[in-house]
C-alpha cells in the first residue's frame, strides 16, 4: 500500500501533480519542474521530505555500532554536528547513503532514504549490541527543506534562531512558526538552505508558515522533479542511480566520506579498491547535439565497445540543455573533452565528457 506524508492534503490543495516514489505518494511538481528548479537557483524552494526515514540510536554502545556500520567516522562529530556517510555490505557494495546527526555523546539520529527504511532498520539491528537501542521514528517526524539563496531570509522571518551563525552540516534546536523543531543546514540541491525536522502533526503549519513568509521573496513549493534536476546538476548521488548494492562509494567518487582504519563493514574490499584504484568511475556527459537526453540505463560506447552506462540523465534547466552522469570503466578515456557515444533507441548519439559537478554555487 502506498503511504502518504503528513503534508499530502496540502499538496492536493496546492494543485500538485502526484507520483509514487519510495513507497510514498509524493508531489512531482506544482507549477512545473523547470519553473520550480529556477526558483531554487534564483530565490528559494520548499520541499516535503517527510518520506525520508529517521532512526535514533542511543546508549553507551551507540558510537561503537556507528563506527562498525558506517564508512565515515562518527567519532569525529561534536554535539549538534552532522555528516554525510554510507552503509556498505561486506563486499563493499552500498546499502544506503545517509546523514548522521549527533545530539549527545550517546545519542544520534540517522536520516535514511525512503525506499531503504525497512532494510536499513533490519541491517542496523543485526549489527547492534548490548548498550545500543535503535528506535525507528520515521512515522513520527515530518521533514521540510527550504533551499536557495533567499532561504535564510525567509526562514528568519518565522524563527528567532540565529540562522546565519549555523554552519554547514550543523544543527540548532528552536522554534519555527512557534513550533519546536530541529533545523539543520543541509540540503540536496547544490544551494544553501535548511532541512527542518518537526513532529509529524505540526508539519503542515510549519510548511504553510514558510510559504507565507516567502511569498514576496519568490519562494515556490517544489516537487521531486525539481529536486532531481537540482541534485543532478550538482552531481549529488541518488540511491538507485549513482549508488546501489553493486556500486561502491569509491566507484561513485565518494572517497572523502570513507575513513579507513576502523574495521567497518566492507573496509577490507574498499581498502583494496583504494590501493588498486576503482575499476569504474562516474563522469559527466553532454550529448553533442544539445537536445538528445541520455537516460538511466543507456549504454555508453567508445571505439565500438561498451565502456559504461548512464546512471542519471535529464534536461538541465540551469544550462538549457540535456546533461547526464555515467558510470564508466576506469580503462576508458574519460578526460574532459574526450568523445564517446550514447546508444539512444538503437541510435549512436555523439557525446562529450565534461567535468563534474555541472553546477557549483558561488559562495
What does this structure look like?
The protein has 363 residues and is of the alpha+beta class. Helix content is 20%, strand content 35%. The chain has helices spanning 8-13, 33-42, 62-69, 117-127, 151-156, 203-213, 224-233, 267-276; strands at residues 3-4, 17-21, 24-29, 44-48, 53-58, 82-88, 94-104, 107-112, 133-136, 141-147, 171-176, 179-184, 193-199, 219-221, 280-287, 299-302, 305-316, 321-329, 339-344, 347-354. The strands form four sheets. The chain has a six-stranded mixed sheet with strand order 11-12-13-10-4-14, sandwiched between helices. The protein has a six-stranded antiparallel beta barrel with strand order 15-18-17-16-19-20. It has a five-stranded antiparallel sheet with strand order 6-7-8-5-9, covered by helices on one side. Strand 6 (82-88) and strand 7 form a beta hairpin. The radius of gyration is 21 Å and the shape is globular. 46% of the residues are buried. The mean pLDDT is 97.
Amino acid at each position: 500500500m502506498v503511504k502518504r506524508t503528513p503534508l499530502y492534503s496540502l499538496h492536493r490543495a496546492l494543485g500538485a501533480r502526484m507520483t509514487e516514489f519510495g513507497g510514498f505518494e509524493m508531489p512531482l511538481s506544482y507549477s512545473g519542474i523547470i519553473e520550480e528548479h529556477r526558483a531554487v537557483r534564483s530565490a528559494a524552494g520548499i520541499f516535503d521530505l517527510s518520506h525520508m526515514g529517521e532512526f535514533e540510536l542511543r546508549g553507551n554502545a551507540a558510537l561503537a555500532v556507528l563506527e562498525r556500520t558506517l564508512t565515515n567516522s562518527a567519532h569525529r562529530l561534536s554535539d549538534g554536528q552532522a555528516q554525510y556517510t554510507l552503509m556498505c555490505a561486506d563486499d563493499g557494495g552500498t546499502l544506503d547513503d545517509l546523514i548522521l546527526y549527533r545530539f549527545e555523546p550517546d545519542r544520534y539520529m540517522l536520516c535514511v532514504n525512503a525506499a531503504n527504511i525497512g532494510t536499513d532498520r533490519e541491517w542496523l539491528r543485526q549489527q547492534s549490541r548490548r548498550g545500543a537501542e535503535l528506535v525507528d521514528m520515521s512515522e513520527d517526524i515530518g521533514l521540510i527543506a527550504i533551499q536557495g539563496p533567499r532561504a535564510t531570509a525567509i526562514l528568519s522571518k518565522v524563527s528567532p534562531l540565529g540562522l546565519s551563525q549555523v554552519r554547514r552540516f550543523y544543527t540548532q534546536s528552536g522554534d519555527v512558526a512557534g513550533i519546536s523543531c530541529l533545523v539543520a543546514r543541509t540540503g540536496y540541491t547544490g544551494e544553501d538552505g535548511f532541512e527542518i525536522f518537526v513532529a509529524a502533526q505540526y508539519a503542515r503549519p510549519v510548511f504553510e508558515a514558510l510559504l507565507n513568509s516567502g511569498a514576496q521573496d519568490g519562494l515556490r513549493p517544489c516537487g521531486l522533479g525539481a529536486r532531481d534536476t537540482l541534485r543532478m546538476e550538482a552531481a549529488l548521488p541518488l540511491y538507485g542511480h549513482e549508488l546501489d548494492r553493486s556500486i561502491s562509494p569509491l566507484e561513485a567518487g565518494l572517497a572523502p566520506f570513507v575513513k579507513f582504519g576502523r574495521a567497518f563493514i566492507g573496509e577490507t574490499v574498499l581498502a583494496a579498491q583504494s590501493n588498486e584504484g576503482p575499476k569504474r568511475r562516474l563522469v559527466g556527459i553532454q550529448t553533442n547535439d544539445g537536445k538528445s537526453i541520455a537516460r538511466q540505463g543507456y549504454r555508453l560506447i567508445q571505439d565500438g565497445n561498451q565502456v559504461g552506462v548512464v546512471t542519471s540523465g535529464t534536461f538541465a534547466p540551469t544550462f538549457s540543455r540535456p546533461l547526464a552522469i555515467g558510470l564508466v570503466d576506469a580503462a576508458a578515456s574519460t578526460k574532459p573533452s574526450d568523445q564517446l557515444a550514447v546508444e539512444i533507441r538503437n541510435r549512436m548519439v555523439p557525446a562529450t565528457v565534461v567535468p563534474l559537478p555541472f553546477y557549483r554555487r558561488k559562495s
